[in-house]
Write a structure and sequence with these properties.
Elements (H helix, E strand, L loop, with lengths): L21 H36 L1 E2 L2 H4 L6 E2 L3 H7 L2 H34 L2 H16 L2 H11 L6 H7 L16 H28 L4 H9 L4 H29 L3 H8 L10 H11 L3 H31 L1
Antiparallel strand pairs: 1-2
Length: 321
C-alpha cells in the first residue's frame, strides 16, 4: 500500500488562495496611508512656495511686476550670476555660516552641561531649573528681545551698570550693539543661545535617562574617571540625540531673522551687521528686487541641504544596517 503526502500550504495561505491574506496586506499598507496625509500637506504647504521661488529666481520681478503693471520677464540665470558676482552677498554668507556654526556648537555644549547638571542635583533644584528653562523657551521672541535690548542699553542697561561697579572699569555709555559687528554678533549669539538651550537641555536630559546607572556605578568602582565615563558610556547613548539637535540648531541659526532685525532696529542697519535672512529681506522686499531675493533664497535652501547632509547620510547608513 502506497501513501501520498498532501501538499503543505505556505503560511498565511489557504489551499485555494494564491494571494496574500487581505488583513496582512492592509496592515502592511497602513503606515503608508497614515503618512500620506502628512506628505500631501507638506507638499502643498511647502512645495508651492518653493516652486514659486524657483520660477521667480529666473525672472526680472520688481515693483512694476508686483503692482501688476508689467508681466515678469524671463531672464534665465541672470539673477544667479548677479549674486555670484556680489561681494557683499558672499561676505554675508561667510558671516552667516560662521555665526550658525559657533552659535549651534555653543548651544549644544551649554545644553548638554545643563542636562548633566539636572542628573546630579536634588529633585527640588532640578524642578526649579526645569521651570526656568521652560519659561525661557516659552517667552515670545519680541518680549525676549525687548529684555535683552534693555540689558545691553548704552544709557540705562544693566550690563553697563554692573560692569561699571568693578573698580577701574567705566562702561557708562558703551554701545554694545553699535560699536563693531563682532560685539553686535556676540550679543546676538547670547540671545539665540539663551532661546535655544532649553530644547537642547531637555532633549539631552531625556537621552541621559537611558544611561544605565548600574553600568556607571560599576565603571566608577573600576576606577574610571568622570571624563572616561562620559566619553565611553554616556556619550555613545547621547550621540543620536546630539546629532539631531545639532542639525536642527544649525538650520535654525542659519535662518535667523527676527532677532537680527530687532537688534538692527535698536542699533546700526549697515550690511556689515546683516546675516542671510536680513540681507535677503533688504534685497527682495525692501529693495523690490524679488528675482534676486528668490535666487538668494534658493541658494540658502541648497546651503541648508548641504549642512544637513552629514546627518541624512548617517541616517541612511543606519537604515542600511
Amino acid at each position: 500500500m502506497t501513501t501520498t503526502d498532501a501538499p503543505v500550504s505556505p503560511p498565511g495561505r489557504t489551499g485555494r488562495s494564491t494571494g496574500a491574506d487581505p488583513s496582512v496586506r492592509r496592515r502592511a499598507l497602513a503606515p503608508y496611508f497614515l503618512i500620506l496625509g502628512a506628505v500631501l500637506v507638506l507638499l502643498l504647504g511647502m512645495g508651492y512656495p518653493v516652486v514659486w521661488q524657483i520660477v521667480t529666481s529666473f525672472q526680472k520681478y520688481g515693483a512694476m511686476q508686483q503692482l501688476g503693471g508689467k508681466a515678469p520677464d524671463f531672464v534665465g540665470f541672470d539673477n544667479y550670476i548677479a549674486i555670484a558676482q556680489d561681494g557683499t552677498f558672499w561676505a554675508v554668507t561667510f558671516r552667516s555660516v560662521l555665526f550658525c556654526l559657533v552659535t549651534a556648537f555653543v548651544t549644544i555644549v551649554v545644553g548638554v552641561l545643563l542636562a548633566l547638571l539636572m542628573t546630579k542635583i536634588h529633585a527640588a533644584a532640578r524642578f526649579t531649573l526645569q521651570i526656568a528653562l521652560l519659561l525661557a523657551w516659552a517667552m515670545p521672541v519680541i518680549a525676549a528681545m525687548t529684555v535683552f535690548i534693555w540689558l545691553f542699553n548704552r544709557q540705562r542697561g544693566v550690563i553697563n551698570y554692573l560692569l561699571s561697579m568693578i573698580p577701574g572699569v567705566d562702561m557708562k555709555g558703551f554701545n554694545w550693539i553699535g560699536t563693531t559687528p563682532l560685539l553686535f554678533f556676540i550679543v546676538a549669539s547670547i540671545i539665540i543661545i539663551w532661546m535655544s538651550v532649553p530644547f537642547v537641555a531637555f532633549s539631552a536630559y531625556a537621552g541621559l535617562t537611558q544611561v544605565s546607572g548600574e553600568v556607571l556605578e560599576a565603571s566608577q568602582l573600576d576606577g574610571a574617571s568622570a571624563v572616561q565615563r562620559f566619553r565611553f558610556i554616556v556619550f555613545p547613548v547621547l550621540k543620536p540625540v546630539i546629532a539631531i539637535v545639532l542639525l536642527l540648531n544649525l538650520i535654525w541659526d542659519l535662518r535667523v531673522f527676527a532677532q537680527i532685525t530687532l537688534l538692527q532696529d535698536a542699533g546700526p542697519k549697515s550690511t556689515d551687521y546683516d546675516l542671510l535672512g536680513t540681507y535677503i529681506y533688504k534685497t527682495g522686499v525692501a529693495g523690490l528686487d524679488f528675482g534676486a531675493g528668490a535666487a538668494m533664497s534658493i541658494f540658502v535652501l541648497a546651503l541648508t541641504i548641504a549642512l544637513s547632509w552629514f546627518y541624512v547620510r548617517s541616517l541612511i547608513k543606519e537604515e542600511g544596517k
